[in-house]
Amino acid sequence: MSSTTAIRGARYWIRRLIQAVALFTIAEFSYYGIFRCPFAVPYVSCANCPVVQCPGKQLWLIVLLGILASGLLFGRAFCGYACPAGMLNELFSKVAVLRGKVRGKFAAVAGYGKYVAAAICAVLFFGMHNPRWAVPIRTGEFVNSTVLTFEHAFPLWLIRTSIVVGTLLLGLLIPYFFCRFLCPTGGVLEILGRFSPFKYRVADSCTDCGKCDRTCGLETRPERDNCTNCGECRSVCPVDAIHLGTAAKGRGPQSTA
Q: Boundaries of each 4Fe-4S ferredoxin-type domain copy (predicted)?
């Protein structure tokens, strides 16, 4: 086995290991945020939430600080390494019907959706004190409590949850639909990523062959919107122009993809 193959394999399994740990740690919290959280914006008002069964009661602050720190240092790395929704989208992308078909101007315009979603969340949280859109079901059996939450939810909560679930399922058609076009956390991390020091970068030796964005599940390339710094593209670059570092060696030719 060559050293390049060994490094590629190590990089792959390190990411899988981090994903497994994250799934074990925060997947249930993620579920509660979508299906049990009574607030308009989930994951951020856990200290005041009466749903005592939610693991977010203990996890929310460390998770939010961890996401913020990872965004400041590594941009959208949380999306590619630890987010349960990101993992679900990665799984869906393997069978997505329209893989490689949604690019160009539509993708560029739709990409602003995640910033709009982040702005709406900011208004709801800071401007409207994160209102409750459902009656909190404090305790109870797992499935029945979820059913009760739906039965006692207000229309806005049902609309919010339907949009989240619906756009997650759209990942079966368009790869990473939710992550690329609607995730508010992704929108915030995308902005932080513009200033993060550690990221995959493209050197001047790039020939713009496009192998990296054809390999990428999010159909992007390093230093572009939606790059999660997963590093999967590095192994397919024929001129070894992709590297992980704190400073760019230069830029390759620009692409419209």
A: 218-247
Domain residues for the domain of 144 are 4-188
Same domain, 237 and 117: no
Residue given tokens 């249930």 in the structure block: 28
- Which amino acid is it at 147? V
Over the stretch 13-69, which tens digit does the pLDDT of each residue have? 899 999 999 999 999 999 999 999 999 999 999 988 989 889 998 999 999 999 999
Which residue in the block uniquely carries the two structure tokens 């679900």? Answer: 88
Task: Tell if the pTM clears 0.85, that is, is over it.
Answer: yes
Residues 88 and 116 in one domain: yes
Q: Measure the CA–CA gap between 126 and 155, rounded to whole angstroms.
A: 22
Phi, psi of 244 (to 5 degrees): -100, 125
Instruction: Report the alpha-carbon distance of residue 235 to residue 66 in Å, rounded.
Output: 28
Question: Are 64 and 135 part of one and the same domain?
Answer: yes
